[in-house]
């Protein structure tokens, strides 16, 4: 599962890659699919905020560090 740093929406790797590819960001989609996510900036397919992709282990509800980056939001 992945979070985007600009929002709190979560995505499976394949779902995020598909959304990024549909928007015409083929290079970013390939990076997401490979799991080489450090520094990749994409827009959330739900709220359209820009942010870097952050890996969050499944079942881990901690969001520490998730709010850093482009389109910063306040933690709830």
From TrEMBL:
<protein>
    <recommendedName>
        <fullName>RING-type domain-containing protein</fullName>
    </recommendedName>
</protein>
<dbReference type="InterPro" id="IPR013083">
    <property type="entry name" value="Znf_RING/FYVE/PHD"/>
</dbReference>
